[in-house]
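Late entry, written up from scratch paper. The run itself happened at the end of the previous shift, but nothing got recorded in the book at the time, so transcribing now.
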Amino acid sequence: MPIKPVAVLWRTLLSACRIAGNVELGKNAAERAISIDPMDNCSYTLLSNIFASKGMWADVKRVRERMDLEGVLKEPGCSWIEVNNETNVFIARDRTHHESNLIYLVLDNLIMHNKGAGYVPDIATLLIND
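Output as recorded:
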C-alpha cells in the first residue's frame, strides 16, 4: 500500500469484522489499529465484542486484562434527558441520581408489564458472560 493506513481505517475494518463475525481478520485489524493508536479503547472494545459474540470468554478476559495493563480506559455508557428544563444525566451502573430508586422501580414495572404482554427480549447480541 503506497500510503500507510491510519488507525481509523483499521478500526473500520475491525468493525466490519465484528458485524461479519470474522475473528481472524478482526484480530489482525485490531493489532494493527492498536499498534498505531495504543490508547484508543475502541479497538480493544470491538475485538472484545467479536470474541464475546463467539463465546470466546477467555479471549475477552485477555483483551480486558491487556487494557488494564496498558492503562486503557473505556468510558461508561451515558445518556441524558431533559425534564422541566433540567437535564438529567445517567451513566451505566451509576445510582447516584437523586431519584434512582424511583427510576429503577418504574423500569422494573415496565419490564414486568412488557413480559406480561408477551415481550421476549432479543438477546442474540448480548455480550456478557454471567
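Strands lie at 78-83, 86-91.
(Scratch paper discarded after transcription.)
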